[in-house]
Amino acid sequence: MTHPVITAARFNEAGLIPAIAQQHDTGEVLMMAWMNAESIAESLSTGQVCYFSRSRGKLWRKGESSGHVQRLVEMRLDCDGDTLLLLVEQTGPACHTGAHNCFFRRVTKDGLEEIA
Amino acid sequence: MTHPVITAARFNEAGLIPAIAQQHDTGEVLMMAWMNAESIAESLSTGQVCYFSRSRGKLWRKGESSGHVQRLVEMRLDCDGDTLLLLVEQTGPACHTGAHNCFFRRVTKDGLEEIA
After folding, report:
1. DSSP notation for B51-67
2. Which residues does B114 contact at the CB level (< 8 Å), separation at least 6?
3. Which residues pair with B86 in a beta bridge?
4. Among A73, A86, B89, B99, who pairs with B95 as Cys (CB 3.0-4.6 Å)?
5. pLDDT category of residue B1 using cuts at 50, 70 and 90
């Protein structure tokens, strides 16, 4: 049976919806990636976050190779159904660069600077 | 002069980039909307967040009619340049429904439930 969140979600033309991952207990915004109906269903059934990789064109089980998995604590759908918020428990760094989150470039008056 | 964040940003085919708004002092994720080069430049110069409304096809100065403005505290660009994180000071509710943030629908085992 299709979970109601998949019915309510407004996917884009590629069948994808943006998903924001946030560390559930600290509020740290970790990353934003994309999900399709299949990856939402898998995330809900396994409790481990699974995205859809646009570059590889296939499911992306977060941490499958790195071990940097995300346990799904809670999933939320926004008011108009076109964005998901995933409250997660992140193991290790979330970013493929090794940074704890992906938002480590701060915009300054005239440039970008890396923050820890 | 074009700000380096606009040069570094990877806009989609419609010239847009997703932007996550987060209350800077509480970590509450408020909403996700879209920005283009022009709205990024205006946000940086005025210090008030300006998005691009896809449905109306024009700049959307957040709170222009409702007064629910977002003062831009800090802007960050993610590791691969395709998502922005906006740390903001939100005045009033962020969501057009009047909810404080847009993520008020929690996914349950078999449905969606509204949370305060």
Report:
1. EEETTTTEEEETTTTTS
2. B104, B105, B106
3. B21, B75
4. B99
5. confident
One-letter amino acid at A49 equals V
Whether A31 and B78 lie within 8 Å, measured CB to CB: yes
A98: alpha, beta or left, given left = phi > 0 and alpha = psi -120 to 50?
Answer: left
Domain boundaries, chain B: 4-114
Which residues lie below 8 Å from residue B116, measured CB to CB, with a gap of 6+? B104
Q: In which element (H, E) is residue A79 found? A: none
In chain A, what's the furthest Cα-to-Cα distance? 52
Could you give the CA distance from residue B34 to residue B50 in angstroms, rounded to a whole number? 9
What is the CATH number assigned to the segment(s) A4-91? 3.10.20.810
Is A62 within 8 Å of A51 (Cβ atoms)? yes
Burial B29-48 (b: 16+ CB within 10 A, else e): bbbbbbbbbebbbbbbeeeb
Please name the fold of domain B4-114.
Answer: Ubiquitin-like (UB roll) (3.10.20)
Q: What is the pTM of this model?
A: 0.97
Nearest to B76 among A8, A44, A105 (CB): A105
How many Cβ atoms are within 10 Å of A106's Cβ, its own excluded?
Answer: 17
> Which residues in chain A (14-43) have CB-CB distances under 8 A to chain B?
18, 20, 22, 26-29, 31-32
Q: Is the pLDDT of residue A47 over 80?
A: yes
Cα–Cα distance, A61 to A18 (Å, whole number)? 16
Express each pLDDT in B44-85 by its tens digit: 999 999 999 999 999 999 999 999 999 999 999 999 999 999
